Amino acid sequence: MAALPWGVRVAAEAAWRLLVLGATVWVLMRVISSVQLVVLSFTVAILITALLEPTVTRLRRRGVPRGLATALTFIAGFVVMGLVVWFVVWQVMENVDEVSGEVQAGIDDLRRWLLHSPFHVTEKQINHVAKSLREAVGANTEQITSAGLEGVTVVVEVLTGILLTMFSTLFLLYDGPKIWNWTLKLVPARAREGVAGAGPRAWATLTAYVRGTVIVALIDAIFIGVGLFFLDVPMAVPLAVFIFLFAFIPLVGAVVSGALAVVVALVTQGVFTGRWC
């Protein structure tokens, strides 16, 4: 080794450390992918706990026992979330016929526009495209049926994830500090003090982030929902709720929910309304 230049030795030491780090990350990602439902459920539970935990703290300051404060907060929180989901589903089911009619009218308007557009599209070409779409659907009936069966599996996984999330949230609300102290025992003794100090600060930051996201999402949902209502867009309230919920998805959530509102407005009310959205 002494015969090797200093730069080569440093590069070799850095290379094997990078290889070990890469292998560790690869193994960790494989483990997470195999239990991704559990990881996702626990992550959602942490976010919900960050939102509900201040309520537990306030109730305890008022003299409410920890178990009762946890139970009241847990039940109230999930009842509210369940009512929101039920309201969205109910509104969608109530307006699905209206939206279907609006979509059909939009397709007819598009057909008429194409016939009189400068693109010189003929009735025969439009019918050919429609026939090709019907044949494609008919030829892929087996795949569509398979997708439906996979959808049943997805529903089961979603229900399992919801139960895991509720279970994790309940224990995090009730025994969060004890769980954190137990986790610290897994950290090497030399690094335990630093991790113990960083944990509460990280939790305070996460709690502030969740609160801020709730406030911003609520403002967006209210103003966009009011705008959709005055533009006479169907399902304005469910779309506003979707905008609120999707705001918790970083980076892409607001874009996806906004695009959904624009598409509904464009299909049901035309280009002018869609542009205003």
From TrEMBL:
Pfam families (alphabetical): AI-2E_transport
TM segment ranges: 68-89, 154-174, 208-231, 237-267
InterPro entries (UniProt xref): AI-2E-like
Gene Ontology cellular-component annotations: plasma membrane
Predominant subcellular localization, coarse grouping: membrane
Keywords in alphabetical order: Cell membrane, Membrane, Transmembrane, Transmembrane helix, Transport
Record localization: Cell membrane
Mode of membrane association: Multi-pass membrane protein
GO annotation terms (biological process): transmembrane transport
Origin superkingdom: Bacteria
Family classification: Belongs to the autoinducer-2 exporter (AI-2E) (TC 2.A.86) family.
PANTHER family: PERMEASE PERM-RELATED, TRANSMEMBRANE PROTEIN
Name the record gives this protein: AI-2E family transporter
